[in-house]
C-alpha cells in the first residue's frame, strides 16, 4: 500500500461521493415535496478519504482550459454583499469584466448568484440561507447547459450556440479568508467522464434540470487554495462546448480539521455566467 506524503498545506479530509441506492435514474427533489410514498432522493453517500492539494504558490500550473479551474486576483468594490440590488448591478458588472479579461469572451450573461454560509453543527440555517455543499458535483449536464442558453438568451440562443459556449462560476470569499468548509476542485485531467460522472435529475416546483454527480476514483486529484482571501477569486468551469479543452471541473466544500475553531465561519458568493466567444 502506498502512503501519500503530504506537503505542508495539503489536507487529508473526507469528500462525499455518489452512490446508487437502486437501479432507477438518480434524482433529487429540491424545494418540492415528492409524491406520497416516494423518497426525496435515491442518491446515497459514498464518503471517502481524500488528500486535497494546496495550489498556493503554484497557481500557474492550473487554468480553465487545462484543469477546468483558475485562481485570479481581483479587489471588489463590494465588501458586504447584503444588498441584492447592489450585487446585481455593481458586482455583476465586475464579474462580467473578470470573465472577459481572463477568458477572452465577447459576451457574458449572468443567470444567478448564491451566497453560502457555514453554520455550527446542529444549527438550522435561516430561511434563504444556503450552506456549503459537501457532495462532489458539477452544476449541470451538457444538455442542461444548452437548455440554460435557450432559457436565458431566448431569440439569440440558436445563433450563440453556433460558437463556443461556456458556463463559468465566479467564486469568492466574503469578509474573511476561508478557514472552514474550503472549496475543493478536481483537476479535469484526472477525471474519467465515462466512469466518474453520473447524470442526476433535479426536480423543482417549476421545472426539471440535471446535474452531474461524481463517483469516487482514486486517480482523481483534488485541489484548493490555502487561506483564500476575498481578493482571490476562483473561476470554476461547469461546461464547455469545445471538446478539445477541459469540459468541466467537479467541486465541493470540505472540512479542514487543522483550522483553528475560533476563526469565522465561511461566507462566500458564487455567480454563475454563460460565456460566449463569438459576439
For the biggest β-sheet, the strand order reads 1-3-11-8-13
Radius of gyration: 18 Å
DSSP strand count: 14
Overall geometry: globular
Helix content: 10-25%
How far is the N terminus from the C terminus?
A: 52 Å
Roughly what is the average pLDDT, rounded to an integer? 92
SSE order, one letter for each helix or strand: EEEEHEEHHEEHEEEEEE
Please state roughly what percent of the residues sit in beta strands, choosing from under 5%, 5-15%, 15-25%, 25-35%, 35-45% or over 45%.
25-35%
Q: Can you tell me the residue ranges where pLDDT is under 50 for at least 5 consecutive residues?
A: none
DSSP helix count?
Answer: 4
The main β sheet shows up as: 5 strands, mixed
Map the helices and strands.
Elements: E1 11-20, E2 27-29, E3 43-54, E4 69-73, H1 84-103, E5 107-117, E6 137-138, H2 142-153, H3 157-160, E7 165-173, E8 182-186, H4 193-196, E9 197-203, E10 208-214, E11 222-224, E12 232-240, E13 251-254, E14 267-276
